[in-house]
Design goal:
The chain is an alpha/beta fold. 37% of the residues lie in helices and 19% in strands. The longest helix has 22 residues, at 473-494.
Length: 527
Amino acid sequence: MTAILLHNLKEIERSREAYWLRYPATSPTRLRWRANATRHALHIAPGETVLELGAGSGVWTEHLTAVLGEASPITAAVFNADLAEAARARHLAATDVVTVSEESRLELETYDYVVGTAMLSHDRWRENLAWIVRLLKPGGQLLFLEANYWNPQVFAKAHSRHLARWSRNAECQIALRESELRRAARSESLEDVVVVPYDILHPRTPRRLVPAVQSTAFVLEHLPGIRELCGTLFICASKPGRMSMERPRADLARHTALRDAISVVVPCHNEAMNIPRLVHALTATYDSYIHEIVLVNDNSADDTAAVARKLGEQDSRVRLVDRSPPPGVGRALRDGYAATTGKYILSMDCDFEMLVPELQDLFDVIAAGHEGAIGSRFSHESVLLNYPASKLLGNRAFHLVVRLLLRRRLRDISNNLKLYRGEILREMNITQDGFAANAETGLRPLLEGRDIKEVPIAWINRSSDMGVSTFRVARVAPGYAIALARMLGERREKGVRHPKRRSAGGADQATSPQTESGEDEVSWSAH
């Protein structure tokens, strides 16, 4: 690291520190948002090392430690000695505050992750990026959130030195463009590069309006023409050197009540490339939980069936259900659920390998006594990147209708990431043969008064090595409308049972209906 780069990092760190302290109404929300984005996008496992570059007084570090927990040690690298002392005074768990100077430097190829907020937006950022890559272990990942050049306010400051000084920007501070970052990432041979506009919440938003802006941010950040105006760029990439299947995985199976209790059901259509990675991730991370993994080959044209059979030869818990025509997600789910024998059923898609560490949140919900858990892409703590605008609008419209009709605060019941008591899915009448079956598996338990909880997850669009999704909004939308109308009609005919909550041991306990548990985790059951 050169003396000029070190000078820049000191300036930018101090300027960024003052910025966060200047907006107490929105800074805590935005910092927690970024911390959750870091956790969900990187899927940091216990024991993996995290370097926060430019931690300052620990304003963001405090949020990182809260969401990552003590199992993920953080090195908080600070460039100003007085800010380092302030960070140490916070006494943050599992955090080592290090003052970086010309005499004291960080070890190269030491960290699994290097993260930061507003620490690349200066005129030596390319040199800074190259240094960050050298700090990472082979296969390590970086994640930074930086000022977006095309945001109107940022654009104005980039072209007016007077306005930049009035806004208390550092002298070296600049704004970054998506195209420039992609070119720089290629020059550093980085892989899995994601650079997208992010964070529509303006720092001067009145405190009372923050929740409303959060709820609409998922839509606004994905609409063409509007998304480019977001204040921040979300920048994530991987250093070459380690394949996903070779990534060390911690054993996260810590609930004894769930041992040999989980049947995993995965509908597979042309997923030969994804199956081995998903099975490896599941068995490496939750081996003692897994009773069986049911891979439903839904009329694939590739080697899905052959790959599944080979995995079954290696592990008897892996079972193949080989479907005959006609294909359909709903048909595959029905056949898969019927083939299970476990106490609980985890339903998931084949390209969810990177979400495996986050499954512990769903398992925690079940272990706490709930009947089911749904991974929500639209919680305030979720991460949603590169989601197609047409799918997003269709999804939000469907959920808006459901919320208006049922008067329930629910966010994402149509995602195929669900963990339920086995009988819920085995006994369910799934009427839709296509993608709309996912809405049925989310909504039917609600209409039955089941105790189901939504938990935040990350959703990042498929990378090129994961194949192509077959979901098409225009084709599947009628199925969702039909499914909703049918379920509501059945509800009127049959009525709704009083909800019961199951204890961790499985006994029924009468409970009063509840709509939410906190702002970001939705627990619901029907009246």
